[in-house]
Amino acid sequence: MNASASPDGFCEPAYGDRSLGDVVPAVAAALGHSLGDVPRGLDLPGAASYVVFLIDGLGANLLLRNAEAAPYLSSLLGGATIGTAGVPSTTSTSLTSLGTGLVPGGHGLVGFTTRVPGTEDLLNALVWDADVDPMEWQPHQTTFSKLKLDGVRVSVVNKREFNGSGLTMAAHRGADYVGVDRVGERIAAVVAASSARPSLTYVYDGDLDWTGHRWGVASSHWLQQLVMIDREAEQLREALPNDRRLLIVADHGMVDVPLEGRVDVAESPGLSAGVAQVGGEARFRHLYCVEGAAPDVADAWRAILGDQAEVLTRAEVIGRGWFGRVDPSVLPRIGDVVVASRGNTAVLSTDGFPYERRLIGMHGSLTDDEMLIPLLVD
């Protein structure tokens, strides 16, 4: 199944159908429980125990192109559903959609970095800021907590360092947290947690994404890491009894950005005029503008970037439905102007984010390579 394309050639998020926010409601239905409307495009086989394994950065197109390096994962592609990330196609947004069942405009994590309303501060949703209460930033009950209240054992198996982090509290609170740091203990923890009936066990691996950022998805390093992830997934399946279902998903894909595809705000004076703060990330920028300057900023960025990016005002991006229905409290977190890169373009802001120079693989925008994700059932 293919995601729908928008008039500008981007991949539209399949909210309510087969997006990441639809995964846990579909799993709940397969467990015999209800979290409201069942997603239209994600019908999962019934079972008393489900394991959801999220592989960070494993886009559907990347898996298809590199099927020989991942024989187990690719063996599940036949007849599989292809889902979509939300917008932007970035980890903090995706993990929160998975854990809450909400669109980004509902849960409020609408970017990797976004302005804290009423301040000049940016919230980095992965690192988090101690001054920002994740329970206030994302006040909605998670799907994990709803299922737990309904009698389902819900467990999160992830690195010890993420226990109690801002993102974990925003996205996955309500579940029993099992801290692990090695593949062996990760698999053992999943087997133990999923032994309960009924149960949902969520497990995360971020190594493929890290490798893609550092070396690029066209590198031998990334390919070798895909081989390792494939073996881990197969080993997990072999360790699980046959009556437990394994659902393998991703949070986004990735594209490599060559030097000639990089535009740096710090080196382009025309991109700075009227911009008070640059947020988001290199493939999906939130621009917070001087009061009244947003229309001129949008015009200037369109003139300079041309067909390298789609440049929209806040009202325009909301009208496109990229964030789904946007809660009023979330509106000021969205940039006055939003910039989504096309092709292999990225808009760096090395004054504020110097590490962006070191990244080869990037994500965040709405191309098929970033948005399409596998939904693999075994």
From TrEMBL:
Any single Pfam family the record assigns to this protein: Phosphodiest
InterPro entries, A to Z: Alkaline_phosphatase_core_sf (IPR017850), Phosphodiest/P_Trfase (IPR002591)
MF GO annotations: hydrolase activity
Protein name: Alkaline phosphatase family protein
Species annotation: Nocardioides antri
Lineage of producing organism: Bacteria, Bacillati, Actinomycetota, Actinomycetes, Propionibacteriales
